[in-house]
Write a structure and sequence with these properties.
Layout (H helix, E strand, L loop, with lengths): L22 H12 L7 H33 L15 H8 L3 H41 L11 H14 L9 H29 L19 H18 L3 H8 L9 H31 L17 H37 L4 H4 L1 E3 L5 E3 H20 L3 H29 L6 H32 L9
Antiparallel strand pairs: 1-2
Length: about 475
């Protein structure tokens, strides 16, 4: 699918591919993938966990995410007879190191997660676009929520239409510009959120919102059962905010090498990306919690704890929408590529699948790509319209992505690659870490599923909220 005419033979890598990725572009891809809608829920997550557990959970996830990323990065090249061969996707890496049924399990986890992320981003982007209109409405009409009810379904459809167009970009290598724009947007709205939180803290003076070491209080803010479920859900929200392992291999595959080896470049990019995002997460989560206390909204830029300056709130939400437009593509391109490569190999004689038509301007169109990607975006948009629950969906996505893709497979491949003896000290440590993360994922998923079940009975499809 790569444009052969534009291939630069002088810059070819050791496998004949022409890659141009650097630490900067890989870091921007990672920041785009990591700093997404997850940052918006961190103030709420901190409110559920409190001043002690909240920061501790955030730091723990950052260390685990980076450590697991380094394991996955080192597994990119194949062992054995094909030693040194690059693997273009997560599934190829698992096939090279583990093989068997684990390849199908990896594919199921990865691509189900991508579908879920597309749904989650559609929900979040529409909420942010609605928030732009509501910010203006509140400025004109006052802070009466009954006067500013706006239907977010048209915005979901609009977001879907934009993705229909962008999804026709043939492959991941052509997305660097979109990823850099998206990364800039993520910095912009995160910085605005920080500034608004700090301004609210300063303006409150001695009358700061109530916050506690253990978060929302049973009998005051929530019931005992709600405290448990929302704590689990908050853990899932934090897990989601670090979910980028499912596209890490694809990002690594854009990096040119050698020298230096692409795994060293990717480790630097991962360190920079995770460090920057953790700093932003800590500031957004903690300052957001300080600004709102135990009453922190589920989305601190669309829950309208901030009303003024309305234009700045509106601009921040525009940045969120633009960022998610790019992040959607960063996540979905691997799935698009997998389906299309599989289909072209399976039905290589079909012109519907393989034929490229030049429509001018150096742009080609493929009928199978057009139809399949359109169906995907339409279905993701429809599902988002049916279950538009921000925190619940993010928590469930975080729980389902975190364990299999961020923890289980990197650990299993590292054990296989290094031939770590069973029941050795390192083997035991890795297995204990894996089991602990599995437990965390299960309780986070349980909390999110309970939240979805609770909220689904309250939904009135296609009505303003």
């Amino acid at each position: 699918m790569r444009d052969q005419e534009s291939r630069n033979f002088v810059g070819e890598d050791d496998d004949g591919e022409n890659r141009t990725g650097t630490v900067m572009t890989a870091t921007s891809h990672i920041i785009t993938a990591v700093i997404g809608s997850g940052v918006l829920s961190l103030a709420w997550a901190m409110a559920q966990l409190g001043w002690v557990a909240g920061p501790a959970v955030l730091v723990a996830f950052s260390f685990i995410t980076y450590y697991m990323a380094t394991l996955l990065i080192d597994c990119n090249r194949s062992p054995g007879p094909q030693s040194g061969k690059r693997n273009p996707t997560y599934m190829h890496v698992v096939r090279a190191h583990l093989g068997g049924a684990k390849v199908q399990l990896c594919g199921l986890a990865q691509y189900a997660s991508i579908v879920g992320t597309a749904i989650g981003y559609t929900i979040t982007a529409s909420i942010s676009m609605v928030a732009v209109e509501r910010a203006t409405c509140f400025h004109k009409e006052g802070h009466d929520h009954t006067k500013c009810k706006i239907n977010n379904y048209p915005y979901m459809i609009g977001f879907g239409i934009v993705q229909l167009v962008l999804s026709q970009i043939p492959n991941f290598h052509k997305l660097s510009w979109l990823s850099i724009v998206a990364a800039i947007m993520s910095f912009a709205y995160s910085t605005i959120g920080l500034g608004l939180s700090l301004a609210r803290i300063i303006s409150s003076g001695k009358h700061q919102p109530k916050s506690t070491l253990t978060g929302v209080e049973v009998g005051v803010d929530v019931t005992g059962a709600d405290k448990v479920w929302q704590t689990f859900q908050a853990i899932g929200n934090i897990a989601f905010s670090y979910a980028f392992s499912l596209v890490l291999v694809e990002i690594q595959n854009t990096i040119k090498s050698p020298p230096p080896p692409e795994n060293k470049v990717m480790k630097k990019a991962s360190l920079y990306g995770v460090s920057v995002t953790t700093l932003f997460y800590a500031l957004c989560g903690l300052l957001g919690y300080a600004a709102f206390g135990n009453k922190a909204p589920g989305n601190f830029l669309t829950g309208f704890g901030f009303y003024e300056p309305y234009w700045l709130v509106a601009f921040a939400n525009i940045c969120i929408a633009v960022h998610l437009i790019g992040a959607y593509q960063v996540y979905c391109q691997p799935l698009f590529g997998f389906i299309e490569n599989y289909s072209s190999n399976r039905w290589s004689e079909s012109k519907f699948i393989s034929q490229e038509y030049n429509i001018g301007g150096g742009f080609n169109i493929n009928m199978f790509r057009l139809v399949w990607r359109t169906v995907f975006v339409v279905l993701a948009t429809l599902i988002a319209m049916i279950i538009p629950f921000f925190n619940d969906v993010l928590g469930l996505l975080g729980a389902t992505v975190f364990y299999p893709l961020t923890v289980y497979f990197p650990i299993e491949m590292h054990i296989a690659q290094r031939k770590i003896p069973k029941f050795s000290a390192k083997w035991m440590w890795l297995k204990i870490l894996s089991f602990s993360c599995l437990v965390v994922s299960l309780v986070a998923a349980a909390g999110s599923i309970q939240g979805i079940a609770k909220n689904v009975t309250k939904v009135k499809p296609f009505h303003a909220t």
